[in-house]
Structure formats: structure tokens, C-alpha cells
Records
---
Amino acid sequence: MVSPRGVHLAERYTQEWVDKLVGYEFPAAFQPTFEGTSASYYRIFDSVLTGKKYPIRTIIAPGTQALASTRGTKRIIEALKKLDFYVVLDVTRTADMPYADVVIPISTMYEVDHPFESSGNWIMARNKVIEPLGETKSDYEFWVELGNRMGYGADWWNGDFKKHMDWRMEPLGMTYEELRTRYPKGYSPGAGSSSQAAASAAPPAAQPATSSAAPSLDLQYARRFSAKGTTIEKAPYLPEGKVALYNTSFEKAGLTPMPVWRELPEGPTATPELLKKYPLLLSDYHTSRAYNAAWLRNVPYLRELEPYPVLHIHPDTAKERGIADGDWVKVEGPHGALKVKAMIYPGTRPDVVMMLHGWWQGCQELGMDDYPIADGGANTNSMYTTDPEKMFDPVITAMSSQTLVEVRKA
Amino acid sequence: MARQYGFLIDSERCVDCRACVVACKAGHGIELGVAWRRVTTTWKGSYPNVSFRSQSMACNHCADPACIKVCPANAISKRSEDGIVVVDRTKCIGCGACGKACPYGAPQYGKDEHMQKCDLCLDRVIAGKKPACVDTCSANALIFGAMDDLPRLAGKKAVRRLEGSTGPSVFVPVSET
């Protein structure tokens, strides 16, 4: 399949550059990964505080809000205070903005004519739906202009965004403007020119994703398993050429070659001594019917569906504590305390309480204020351990989001 | 009456996403704090053998609407051509009698205190479209049609008329308890 060039510039990577990465998301032996060098969100902020492997003094943060989105909220507050220079780029107000030196409003995808709409083997030039509501540019334009103004013009198309898009289109043998004008309904590389004449190109749903003769790449196992890796030396991930239950690549990198059980940072069997004070296991989920993670609480029609941060609690567990549906409750654990509403929820295990992650934002139209980002607020991320030995999965750096708590009427 | 339009409300298919509530509010530009369509959730059993069902409901456009009988201003009427129950908000005096009389809580009151409720997306239905809630339901838990046609539109699922003294224009699955 022919695709436009990505924006990760993977072909320019050197081992020296990869070695400079702080806060590996995946272990050093597997860097860079498919999307280039990849650092763990929290670990970058941790590096600000520890100065390891070298001091981080500036962060430019597009489309993120670490205070609400990742674990270790209180340590992230300290890191944001310590940074010399913090730049936040986003389409909406975020939890991090009070700590930013510069906030750059960014156009939404509905307000710009780039980069692409794509699905399977189908690609179309993006068409803006409305003019930008404010004086904004896209994050793509931001990076190209910043790279140019920092004096790296040769690497950044001298700030010419059109040239950047044409460079991305080179593998398809046309310019970005040609994609827009010749294939207004989209282009499928290799599908033959007769089937996609400008006016009659089929929309993605009607387009066969692959030809019927060849199985999709995912089903061509021999090719898949011998594919080159993404590291500088391009070693394959599966050197035996087949699925590895005992993973020799992991073993070589000093990781466990087979999955092993690890205890939770705090839990009934991990820390039985805490159970008397904190008898309930708290965890969280990241998506609800109204919200994605830490976003969208400011949209009134959605906020009406789920107006308050709620704690799912089993009816028996609530009754023992004199808690009724809709009561404000305090949730206290070894690392923090929240104030949220109880929701009597028969689908929860009696010794478990659950919350939606990402609560901080108010809703102006409904007269609802922001909640505190840490203690006294509703952000579960402030409740979990920041012990580096306990908070990460050693391979993929997924972070633990379980702890023990007690719940009582506020 | 030429025909009676109504809903098939299939709580067995509802995934509790509440998109119907938002589509209704967005389609009619309903003020904050008011919802013409609402979803209620009922739990059955106890952990670990536990499940819940959600039911979406708005105005049921009843055969014999309780709201019309109690309105002192003759502001509510039932259209002869399609059985849709509509309110003339210029006649409404905001007494709230309809809200107390309706067994389903359909009449709603916003800042102006005059009654507002589901009009079965009258404008859309006249234009040959489905109501906004039905159009947006990704689980086919809400189906719109003439009451005579709804059992057929339900496909293989056996449905029954929702019982009630006012004759709600609603079908529900036979298996729903």
C-alpha cells in the first residue's frame, strides 16, 4: 500500500539521538517505535523533578493535559512549577493552562484544509467545514513555522506549509492540490484510474479495502513475522519468524520473557496491613457515555447527562456506611482524598468502588465551577502511588490505577 | 383518525448511550435543564448475577390523553391526521395541571413556565423523515411508525401495546417484564 510520508521523520534518526530520549515509554532496546521515539507522559514530568538523564527545562505540549490525564497529579504540579518554560497548544481550555507561560489556541480539524481524511486504502484531502472561529492555525502549521523560525529552515520546508504537504504526497506521485482537485471524493492507491475518475470516485464505505486476490498484510504471516523492526539496526521483533510465547527479544533486553504476576501497589493481598483503615479497592474507567477521559465536561448537553463526578458503590457497602444514592462522599486513601457523589450501583463488587477518570472541568453555561485538581477535588489520578518501583508495568509503562480507600459521608 | 403514529421502545436493545436525549435537545434547541426525552435505568438481580435495562421515553401521544382533559386553556390538542399530541404555547397559561395528570411525566416546564414536550418531531415527520431520537439510535432500540405498522417493523421480535389507562401509542417487547 502506498501512503503519504509520515511526520515522524524516522529516516533521520540516529542512535545518538535515540539515546538522548528521557522517560522511555517502551524500553530503550525497542526505541524508536512505530511512531518514532516515544516517551512516557508521566516519566517526562518526573525527569523535570529528578534531572535524569538531564534536566528538562522546556516543554511544548500539544493536545495534552497531564494534570487530568495521567497518574501522579501532585508530582506533575511540582514539575509544572519547576519548568522554566511551558507552552500549551490546544483547541479548548485544559487543566494545565494555569501553569503555562504561553497558551496557543489551535484550529480544530473542522477549520483547516489539511492534512488528510483516510480509511484503509483510501485518502482524501481534508476540506474545512467552517472558517476558524478565532485567530488560529493548526498544530501542523505551528511546528513547521516553529522549526523554520528556530533556524532549521532547510529541514522545515523554509516554513512553506504547501511544500510540506507536497513532500508528504510525493510517494503518491502527485501534489496535495492535485489530490484535492483531481480526486475530490478520495483516491485509492493502486485501484486503477478508471475506477476513480474525479467525479465518480466511490466514498470509503463502498470501496473494497483490498483486492480479493491477496490476503491482507495482517494475514500474510511469513511476511509479517519477518518484517524489520523500527530500531536503528532494524532487528525484527520476532527473530524466530513465528509467534513467540517465550520472547527472546524481551529476554535480551533484560525483561521477563514470559508474563509474570505482579501485585498492585496497594490491594487486599499486596498490603493487608492497610485494609483496616482502607477496606475498599478504588479503580477507574476512562470513557463514559458522555465523556472521553478528561475531556468534554464543558459541553452543556453532555454535562446534563452526567452532571457530577460519581463513585459507583455496591448497595450493601453504601448501607453499612449510611450512604444514600446522590450523597456527597469523601473518598480517602494513602495518597489523597476526593469529594464526589455516591451512585448506588448493584453492578459493582461489594469491596470495589469505581470512578470515571479525568474530572476537573466546570461548565460555564450550567453555572458549574472547576473542581480542585488534586485533594478535595474529583481527579482519581491524584489517588495513586508515585513509587517508581510500583507505578509502572516494566515493559509498556502502563501505569497502575488501583489503590485502597475508605468512603464516608461528606 | 387517519392514522396514529407512535414508537416501539425496545429496552432489550437499548445500550444506555443517551444519544436520543441529546438528539432531541439538539434538534429542538431545548433550553438547559429541560429534556423532552429521558432514559430511566432499572437494575435486576444482585452481584455477580446482575443486569440492567434502560428505557427511553418521551410523550407517548396517547389515544386518550390525560393532559388534554385537564388543560383549562385548551392549549393541548391531538391532531386528527396523525394522532400527534401538540401544545399551543401561546395559549398555555403555565398552570402545570398537565404535568400532574400525565402518568409518564411527559410535560416539561422551562424558564417561561409554559408547557413544552415531544411533538414527535412534527416538522421532520411531515417532511417524511424519522424523529431525531429514532434517527440517531444506533441500536435500533427506538423505532417510529404508524401503530398499525409497528408490529411488522419490529421484525422477528414479538411486541405488545404498552398498557395504560390513557392508551399510550407505544409498543414494547412481549418478553420485557
Note: Residues 281 and 404 of chain A are 5 Å apart (CA to CA).
---
Amino acid sequence: MNVLNKTRRSFILKMGAGASAAVAATVGMARGEAGASDNPALKAALLEEEMALRQLHRAYERAMDKGLHEEVVGMFANDAEVVFNGGVFRHSQGIARLYRDRFRSGKTGGSMQPAPGFELTADQQREQVEVSADRLSATASFPYSIQVGMPFETESSLAAMARLHGEGVRTWWEGGVYQVAYRKNAAGRWQITRLEYDTLSRADYRAGKSYAQPIAVARFAMRFPEDQQGPDALVQDGVAAI
Amino acid sequence: MHRFKYTKLTPDQIGAKLKTVVETGPRSASSFSSALNGKTLKIVTQNGPTLEYKFAANRRVSVAVDGAKAVSAGYGELTLNQIVFFSHLMPGEQKGYNVFIDQKTNLATVFEVWLSSGIKQNAGRPDEFALDDREVQRQIYFGHVDTGAPAATKLHHYTNRMTGKGLHWKQDNGIETIELYVSVANTNFVELTRHIDDLSYVSPSDYVLVDDRTVIYNRTECEFSGIHTCFVADLYGVKQVGVRFGFNDKDELEYYMFKGDGQVVGQIAYLENFDDHGIKPMFAATAAAPPAKGARVTYRPVHTFPHMTDEQMHEAALKRTSAFGSGAAAQAPPQAQGLGTGNNLPFSHILVGKQFTLRFDYGPVRDYKVSDMNKLQYRNHGDAAWIDAEYRAYEGDDNLAWFSHILADSKPRASVQVAVDFTNGLATSIESHMGTEYYGNETTYRAIFGVVEMPGLEAPLYVRHELTDELVGHCFSWSYSDQTTSMHVYTSPHSMSWVIFTGAQQMGAEWCSPCIYVKLREGVYIFCQNEEACNGNQMIELLNTKASHDCGFTFNGSARGVSLGVTGAIGRHIGKFDIVDFYGPKKRSA
């Protein structure tokens, strides 16, 4: 079913749940061309792009679940940035630092079920993909429910022994919404140009626990290279500070 | 403990000694069996070698590995039920094979063992080091005897069935050990006949299930002599046959087979999910696939423990001596620094408003005056001047104070952890200071016993707190926070081990230390351990087994200075081994 949103000069395609069984409703949107709904070819092309972006996001999630951080880094444009926990990781080097180093050592980013009592609302779970009419850029939001962690910063024997198990990481649960921007490169492949972890809640939860408490996590306070796995910039009052 | 002076044997020295036993094969106090005499066997292993054997009389065997030219060596063979076990070395190499064959099923488990491995630990990192050449390496292969029939699909496999079990073994050569298999990847063992102090050690181990009553086991004394012990056990008859191979603490080559009789001394709970059978070994679960040959979960603390002299340590202490300072270092047990200790008991005002004298037998006499929850005054009895000190106190049991402070201006830096029983007039002090004869940055402790004198309290003349073995054999998990739990195994009157859990509640990495136990009251104890030849840290806890809670202090030093901190945890009693009667001079002289 097509719904024209004339005030935004774009149209909304209500896709239903077919694109993702986990999502109650998904929305696709193309900006700029009110006539898209009258243009079956454009409409089909936009739908195709939207599907490609959803697939890219699913591939991102699968790679994160499997710990394939190199594959994840390869999904970003060279000039991309990722905003995570008050830090901005820029360009290929910064993004590699976040995924290869910080996320890998912290066992961060893999999907996990929401902490009990912290489930996202239906609105927060809504996926949205908006493709520009020229089909060269897009924005999207996808809900997430992931494990986040931080290695124990200690040389104590318990931490050293835990590392022998591949552990020694303090983990918790985070839920929120990925705010993503995409751009199509010269080869016609979609790449992520910006990804923000818009965290809505955190809890001291691990799989199997029957309850969870909210927790506070300190935002990044140091930039790279002072923090070897730190961001290139800090977000202060919503603005990235260099 | 951990203080044997091991020679760094060179590959040439090792090779020269192995040469003397390649032809003879292993010794055995019991008669060898001859089940394989005259037989030819081809053993095919999964992802491992194919071994073609021809067994002759007089304990000679020819073996061809992966189709190479056959070589001849001496071998030894023992049987246990349907299992035939044989061991031999390879001429001209520093390796050999220990082979277990189930004659009913024709399944085989093969241990390749070798020395002078050249294996690098932490390869490519700043803390890279090479394993000692004398450390026996092992690789386990599962396979079958090729009889021409279709290959078996279900082979022997790793298991967690032994986890939590404890056995006392007595071998045919008189060697007695207590072996506590409390981890899926380690053994905590006490050599009752080899060493005089009944100290327990920890070594990485593997456990292989043959059938419901039969298990194959090995341990290698990594970080110690590097010697390897491998056997098959029948848990119905509680018997073993096996081999010991490697260099002992006197640098002697031991290569002998043995039979042994056992006694199950207990079974503690193992806490992983009921559908987890331990089929994937811990080293494989954590390694990049496939794990490197010889991989195992081995904690090697002394390799990363920097050596400081007494003077260096004191210089650092002069720059910074912290008592209950802010930050993680002061808030966690030695094993858990930085990991949080949210489950500690609250501090107590039990001492506030009190003035008393602690008179220790043949030891110091100290006066105390306390008017604050965090600061006290003390002096050596007879001195005029009081000394101010930061302290923390708990009420570990009714009217039982447990507190600690630094001894001001001490060299080496010293602290005291003191239990004062205001009901019974008794006091115990753990007197701790930096430095051992080996490291300036290790701690030393001793317990002294005495009385508390104050108006209205009668100090006993004869009754004292005393060292105890009541906790020996017990296992408690201690959860310092929701993120950090360690199980303590109180293995012997003077030593313990600790095991940490994986996320799946498997008991995994394990290490050991000397310790002492003091009984304060029924169910209330002081437990004091020093992570000797590890990181030198000391943990001094009051254990209240009635409440399943502990509370206490940490004392440690490094280039960053000396730190006195607090710690505490919620406990769970995981089980008990009935082993205390094995210890002590009475046993040895019997």
C-alpha cells in the first residue's frame, strides 16, 4: 500500500513484516520525488534499493554476531564515522580501531535478547529506511539489542586466568536504535557513511539471568591515542569535539 | 612452594638422557603384561598420525609413523580390564607415544608426548617467552585400530565426568597422591610421599571418556618440573595403570609405568548445565580454530611477575603507601583487583569508643584507642606517643572485631590484620610485611595469638585462637561481585587452590598458593594466603561459614607502591573432600 506524504515531498511504502519477521512494521521512504508513486519503475527501483540496504544491515548484524570484524569494517566508506558511547570514530583507521580492537576485546556488538523489563517499545522497534530519489544515498534506523563489554583493566590473577578462557570481560546489555546513513559508491555498492549507536537503555544482564538492573556506563573521556582504543573525537553536548 | 630450583635443561642434555631409555623402554614395579606380544597393529587417528606397530618379545616394538621407515624401541605394557596401555619413545627424537587401546571396541587414544618444544607463549607480543625445553608437551589423538572393518564413528572423547571428583591414589612403587579434579582443565594435587610439606600444586590436565567406568587422564607439571603423568582409571574398581615421563625436581629422568589402587575421597558439585558434557576441551573452546599442537590452558604467572629487590620495594613504598585509598586497587582481593568487590560486608563501628591492649604471646603488645570509624590510634605498650592510622573494621561475628592498618614508618612496609574477640578476650594478629627471600615485592605473613585486655573483660591465661585444619577439604565459591567469582579449594593444612568459572559455569583456570587457617570460633576462621611465586599478593579473610560470607583485607606491593585494601564476598559451599586424615606427621610415621 502506498501513502503519499506530500508535506515531505516523499512517499512512504508500508512493507508489512515481510522484510523482517521480528519487526511489526517496516517503512520505506524515498525523498524528493513526489511522483515516485506514479512511476512504477522508480518505485520498483527504490524498493530494490531498500531491500539491498536491509540486506546490508542484516549482513552487518550477522558479521557482528560471528565476530567477523574485518567484514564489518569493509562495509564502511573510507570517510565514514561511527558514534558510540560518546565517542566518534572516524575514517577507516578509527572505525577499524573501534571494531577490530575495542569491540573484539570487549566482546561487543553481538545480538542478545533484551534484558527483562528493558524491552524496546513498538515505536522504538520500528525499522525505517529512506532512500533518496537519486538512489545514491539513504538513511535508516534499526533497533538493536546487543551485548557490550569492557575487558577488566587489571593484571590481577583472576583476570589473567579469565583471559585463558577467552573471558576477563565485564559485559552488559544495551538496547537502542542504530541511526545509519548510507552512500552508494562508484561501483554501485552501498556503504555505511555514518552509524550511531543511539543507546536507550543499559542493564546488568547476561543470558539466563531472570532479572536485570539498570546500569550507568561512563562515556568515553579520552581520545586516541591517549586511549589506545579510544575515539577520534568526543561528543560533548551532542556535538563532536575535536 | 613453587621454589624448586629447576635447571634449564638444554635440548642436548635432554636428548642425552632420553637416549638411555629409548632402547630399554619404561621401568615398572609391577610385571609388564604381554597382551600385544607378537601382534601387529595399525592405529588410525583422527587429524593425527597413523601408527603401524609390530610387537616382538622382550618388550621390543617397531613403529612406523605415517608410512615412514619403521624404527625399533623398547616399550612397556600394562592392562586394566579391556584396556591395554603401552608406552615407548622414538629413537633419535625427543618424543614418544602413550597409547590406550580398548580391546572390546578397538578404539584408541594416543598421546604424542615431546620435549624441547620451542613453543612460544604470547607469540608476537611484548611478553612473549619460550616454554622450558624440559616441559613435556602432549597432543591427544582419538582413533581406532584398523581391523579392516569400517572405521568407528564414535571415538573416545574429552569429558567433564571427572570434574569435581577427588581420589587418593597409591601406586605400586609406594607413591601416594591426592588428586582433586576440580576443573575441567586442571588438577589440584598433593604428593604425599614426595614432599614433606603436604603442599598442593596445580597442573593442566585432560580428561578423556572411554566408557562410563573408564577415564583416561593426564597432567603436566607446567611451571614446575614439567613432568607428565598419564593413566587410565577404572572407576568401578578404582584402579589405574599409567606412565610417568619427564624430569623431576632433581633433574632426574623418570620414565616408568605403574599400577595403582585408589579411593574416592569426595565429589563436589560441578555447576555447568546438565546438557554440557565437556566434549569440547577448554583449550579448543577458546583458541583460534584449529588450536595449535600442544595447546592447553596453562596459567604461567611467574613469567610475568617482575622481580624487585627489598630496597626497590621500599623505595616504591616511600613514594606511595596506600591504606584503603580510593580506586579499584584498594577495593578488591589480590586475585580480583580491578574487578569490583560489591559483595563485601559493610564496615563496622565495633571499635569506636573502645580503648584496649592486645598482648600477643612472645610478641608485641599494642595499645589501641579508637574514636572514629576510619581512624584509630595505636602505640607499642609503654610508649608515650600514640600513632594515628587509617583502619577499616568489620564485625565478622557477634562482638568479634576484624580490622587492619599499616604499621607506620615500617621497613619493610608492614600491616596487621587483627581479630579481637570482645566476648572471649582473645586476639589474633596476622603480621604481614613486604618481602620474601625471593622477591621484595612478595608478601610474608605469620599469625600470632594473644589476648585483649580492657576494663570489664577477663583475658584468658591459656585459651587461645589456634591454627586449624577444620576447613581442609572444603570448597567454597566466593563471589566478590556479580562479575567475579572464584572457588577456593582448601586442599591441605598449608595450601589451597583457586578456580575460576567460565561464563558457562565450567570450572576452568586454576592456581595454588600456600595459606594458613586460624579458628576463631565455631564456624568462624581466618584464612590467609599469599600468591607466592605468582604476584606476591596477600589476601587475609575472616570466613564466617555460618553466614557463608567472608570479609577482609588485601596487602600487596609493586613498583606503584604498597597498598592495603579491603575485600569480601558471598560464599557458597560447593562440597567437601574427606582428605584431612591424609596429612601430617602422624600419617608419615605410620
Note: The two ends of chain A are 46 Å apart (CA to CA).
---
Amino acid sequence: MIPPSFEYFRPATISEAVSLLQQHGDEAKILSGGQSLIPMMKLRLARPGFLIDINRISGLSYIEEEGGFLKIGGLTREAELEASSLLHSRYTIILDTASVIADPQVRNLATIGGNLAHGDPANDHGATMLALGAQIVATGAKGQRIIRIEDFFVSLFTTALTHDEILTEIRIPVPPPKSGGAYFKLERKVGDFATVAVAAQITLDGGGACQKAGIGMTNVGATPLKAKKAEDFLRGKKLDAANINHSAQLAADESQPSPDLRGPAEYKKGLVKELAKRALSSALQRAGS
Amino acid sequence: MAKKQLVQVKINGRTREAMVEPRLLLVHFIRESLQLTGTHIGCDTSNCGACTVLLNGKAVKSCTMFAVQADGGELLTVEGLMQDGQFHPLQEGFKQEHGLQCGFCTPGMLLSAYALLQQNSNPTDQQIRWGISGNLCRCTGYQNIVKAVQFAARKLGEGKSVAQGGSK
């Protein structure tokens, strides 16, 4: 399949990329890993007239803790997340997520920034970032602005980024001691989008009760969804089997899946409940209860 | 039609270049502009992995990348595996262990396995299956492909120990 013709730019700096976006308006698209955009162009679901390749901009690929945040550069590849010793030691929920995205070849190119900026509710990082309470750093002509992840996903394939902004960094508040998280995904085969997936991140208080819970859900709505009622219910409670079960049920009630080839809506709600139970139980174990 | 651009790559050790439209996919550049037809086009939707090549040491699906993105990079395709008229241990393994039937997935399978062995010289059965999870084979049921990769890992390991022995 041959994509429609386009003009190709390879800027060396972010400011150059931003001015190209301003110059070409809605017809321009950022090319990051390209693992969603190029298939869409081949199917002619996307027909950008101008492609701005940011892959040669240096300093956009990093994973580091600084100033109370885990900071991940927008151009960081999934394979780099998988190999990060920092993530292995302290952010296993992000490893869970990166390692079930597509397949090894796709993960060598696909980027975390592209995964989020694409705004596909079936993409995996959205739910995890909702669970972690992340912030998105968008860089535009006027500099940087911070977007809370809760405000980032607007609707299907639409985010809060304006047409001349680039997602340059993801910031995750460093979780306090006694925190843990996990991402559970059901896929029909390696490389498929999630039938359903659930991310859960919890922090325990001194007495072992739940101080804070974050729960995100993949592919059960027009955007990645935050299970607010399920989160609120857990606050201050022991994470015993009954409370986990009830919270998982609330998450299932909050999900809005559509029936498709991967199954009917009721089946998917059932899966939300089961995967939420597993994610919360694993998060609890990792928090060192 | 958009303006053509020069793309220069080092492929299998040789520097090659061509003027291409930006929309030309890397796999078409390799097969048509450079006339190296060992790399196959399978599903053309980044599912099957038949078009897998190594770009700067990493396995990528060349149907899901533009040739202009590879400009200045180093590529390895199946044509580059044989050295001095000798099969690469992976090619030998696929032959000895019957790691192919129709052979369509083989070039991509070889390159994914090559990338895996670069990272992990002694992979377990499970790690091999994970390493080739982006490559589909409809003939073998994967059993013999796993055996072929194990064969290559053993052979490469022996080569290393011989080399180490010789240097003592």
C-alpha cells in the first residue's frame, strides 16, 4: 500500500519543528515512531500534506528522576522503557505496559509520546498514566505548558494538544514509599490492541489502608478512562478481597465498552472487573503490604 | 508529486543511494531502488514481520517506515548474513533443523533472531518465542524455528569458546 504524497521535513530542533507546524497548520503531522501514523496513511485514513520528522531532534529521549518527578522524554522508544533499570526497580507498572505493546520490532520504533499524542483509546500508556496521575508537557511557540492527564484525552483521536504543540515530556510524581502498581491486558494475540486492559496504582498509609488509588482503563470508551468511583471507594479502606471486588465492580460499571470483533459489551465489562481485581491485587503485593 | 530526495544508506556493508519520493516505504527502497529482493513484503500492515530488517542494529518492520527516515543509517538484510561464502549459523540452523517450509517468512525470521542473539547469546525457549513474536510463520508451527535459533546460539557459543581458547 502506498501512502498519499506528502512533503517531508526533518528539523534539528524543537523550535524549528514548532515553526513548521505553525507554517503548515492542520495539514501538518508530527512523525515520531510512525507505528500508528504510517499504517493509517497507508490505509488513507490519514493524509497529512506535510510530515515533520522529529526523530533526529536530540535530547527528547530520556528516563530520569528529577525534582520529585519521573521524567520521560516524548521520543523515548518502548524498547528503551523495557530496558530501563530505573523502571525495573521502581516503576514496574510502566514496564508491564510497555512490554505488552505490539511486538518487538514495533517497540523498537514506537514512542511513549506518540502513543499518548495519538489519542487512541486502545493505546496502552493512557490508562497507566491516568493511574499514575501524570502530567503532559506540551511545547509550542510560547514555550511549555503542563496539561494534567485527566484533561489530556478529549475524545476519540483528539487530545488537548493544539495543532502547533509537540508532546515533549511526560512527568510522573515519584510515588511515596509503600506504593505499587500493575497493568493487566487481555489481547487475542501478540500485537493486537487490548480487548480490555486495566492499570492500577496504590499507596498505602502507615496502618496498611489505602491512602491513594489510581485506576485507568484501556479500550472501553472513546478515550482512556479513569475509574473515579472505584478509586474514591478504596480511599481509607483495607485492600481486602471484598473491597477489591467492590472497587473492581465500580470500575466495570464506569466503563463504556462498545461491542466489536473482540466481544460484546457485557463480556468486556466482565473483563474490566476481573482485570481490575488482578491489577489491584498485584499493586498491593508490589506496595509491600 | 513531492520533490525527490537523496537517501544514502550503508546496506550489508556497502554504501548505496537513490533519489526517492518521501512516501516511498523502506521495503520498496530496498527491493526496488536497491534491487535487494531477499526482504519480503507480507501483510503490508506491520503484523507479519516478513519485511523485518536491521536498522542501526535494531529490528524494524521496513513496511512501516519511510526510506527517507533511514537516510544515513546502516541496514542489514538477509543478503548480508552470509560471510565469505559461509552460511551464518542462523541460516545453517534453519537448514539443519527444518526451520522453514515455504520460506516466505524466513528472511524476516532470520533478522529478528539475529537481533535477539545480539542482545542475548543464550536465550531460553521462552525468550526465543518472545523474540520472534513479531514474526508470523504459517508452515512450521514455530517448533523448528525455535530449534534453529537454539542451534545457532550453540554454534555461535562454540565459536566464542574456541576463539577464547585460541587466545590463551
Note: Chain B has a mean pLDDT of 94.
